[in-house]
Design a protein that fits this description.
The protein is α+β, with helices and mostly antiparallel strands and about 210 residues long. It has 2 domains: about 10-115, YaeB-like (Elongation Factor Tu (Ef-tu), domain 3, Beta Barrel); about 120-205, no CATH class. It has helices spanning about 50, 120, 180-195, 200-205; strands at about 10, 15-20, 35-40, 55, 70, 80-95, 95-100, 110-115, 135-140, 140-145, 165-170, 175-180. Strand 1 (about 10) and strand 2 (about 15-20) form a beta hairpin. About 10% of the residues are buried. The mean pLDDT is about 85.
Length: about 210
Amino acid sequence: MFTVYPIGYIRKESEVFIEVLPEFLEAVDGLREGDWIKVVVWLHESDTPERRKVLKVHPYGNPKNPLTGVFATRSPLRPNPFALYTVRIERIEGNRLYISWVDAYDGTPVLDIRIFVERLDCPSEVEEREVDTSRGLQIGEINLIPRKSEHLDELEEVSPEEFEALIIELGPKTTVLSAEELCRLIRALQDIYEELPVEIKDKVRCLE
């Protein structure tokens, strides 16, 4: 058996917002206006023993559509009636996350909130097994995730322009730099660093 606790509730007044329960408010730290998030909710009004047994539905509730397994649909009728929304945070006020519209009912329990990451939540050409997340580094709002240095014997014929060396994440957006682009970025950053006032460089000394 699993135990699931709501961390908040969907509220629909003049606007739609997530009311985060006080005991989970610290978990909101780091979220900002404009962030895209994934919200997991429990469709409590669809949670009955009878509805949990429904395994096939007519998609979109249209009987003209052929019966389809619920796992191939977005139907609220499922063995475990939860839903996943991707929404934008319009603003944050205390324990309220004002979000874009969702079709969940007022009072729907929220089970989890996760930041939307393009690399993880959208198809990518870079396979996750090739990403060295253990060496990921966050600088400001930028995440830098290098590629694993494995299977070097397979890379003899790969050019620096083809080798995808670094993933850069900024909010939900992801881009991949080739080894050649990474080299150009390093040179550009070094040039920018050299242009800093001497008084600032003497205080940081990051390249020594």
